[in-house]
Amino acid sequence: MSFVQKTKREFGGFQNDLKSKNTDYLHIRCDNQFYSSLCVPETFSREVLLHVISLYLPNNTFFVPPMFLAIEGEPGEGKTVQTIATCIQHGIDILYISASQLSGAQEGDSIEIMDKIYAAALAMRQSTKRVALLIDDFHLGSAIYDKNVTCSINSNLLTGYLMNLADDNTKAKVPIILTGNDYSKVYAPLLRSGRADKFIWAPGYEEKKLIIKNIFSTFVQEDSDEFDKFFDKYSSGNVADFSQLKNDYRKFVMNKFIGGMTIFDNESLETISENLNKYNKKVDYVILEELAQRRFKKRI
């Protein structure tokens, strides 16, 4: 699943113009409106900010910050999107790449791709921009060491390259953030203390409630008892489940506007779009409950 697809699934958002020309990475700029509107729990945002800021402190003799922040947690809980949102909301650009893109088809491809994106990040830093590098789904990438899987040359090369980056204290560094579901098979020395800080993201009840209320902010009014009761019932679902539930509700609303239309020319599509954009009615919890019963049937 691509990053754009995952973002749509987890938060119902749409990304535009993220792909940098002639590169293997996405450059997400700090003026991105979608990420600026997201609500990120302070526990999460504080970990990301402390990591990024520590590597930009001028003349820092207080401590030597690690290069990597490894965020680990269950799939669908918003690790990637919330990392990006935290940075964007604090004036920090993101250079994004999926770990699978670092695998490479030929020997040396992985470090060539990594070197390219890191060089771009360094150039941005030298131009006084604040930037962080994000490697998504790191647990699926080349730095995995499993006794049942033969390590590739690219796996060894990439691991060595990243360790050298972390250990070189003679140059300015760009903070690197890793997201993944399980780091137990990642080469342990790469993420040892001094090279990486680890952060386990398992949102608590109130944190998840804050995220979900923000996702449903178009439909849910503040201090809604109905929403509280609804969330209580389905709180075992992950962020991605609720985001897709919102899309289910959107499709339900859209279906009403389609009505008996049989031809969908440009004029018809524009009419549907205008009606959807004007739609500001309070959520119908009877309908939402029916949709949730289908989506969450394995969780309740």
Model description:
The protein is an alpha/beta fold and 300 residues long. It has eleven helices and six strands. It has a six-stranded mixed beta sheet with strand order 1-3-4-5-2-6, with helices on both faces. Helix 6 links the parallel strand 4 and strand 5 (176-180). It is elongated, with a radius of gyration of 21 Å. The protein folds into two domains: 3-200, P-loop containing nucleotide triphosphate hydrolases (Rossmann fold, 3-Layer(aba) Sandwich), CATH 3.40.50.300; 205-295.
Strand order of the largest sheet: 1-3-4-5-2-6
Quick one: how many beta strands? 6
Radius of gyration: 21 Å
Number of domain modules? 2
SS content category: alpha/beta
The helix tally amounts to 11
The CATH C-level name of the largest domain is Alpha Beta
Q: Find the CATH superfamily of the largest domain.
A: P-loop containing nucleotide triphosphate hydrolases
Shape annotation:
elongated
Percent range for β-strand residues: 5-15%
**Separation, N- and C-terminal Cα atoms:** 26 Å
Helix content: 40-55%
Q: Taking all residues together, what is the mean pLDDT? A: 85
Largest β sheet strand count, sense and barrel closure: 6 strands, mixed
- The stretches of 5 or more residues where confidence is low (pLDDT under 50) are 1-6, 8-18
CATH topology of the largest domain: Rossmann fold
Instruction: Using the 3D structure, state the CATH architecture of the largest domain.
Output: 3-Layer(aba) Sandwich
Q: What string gives the helices and strands in order?
A: HEHHEHEHEHEEHHHHH
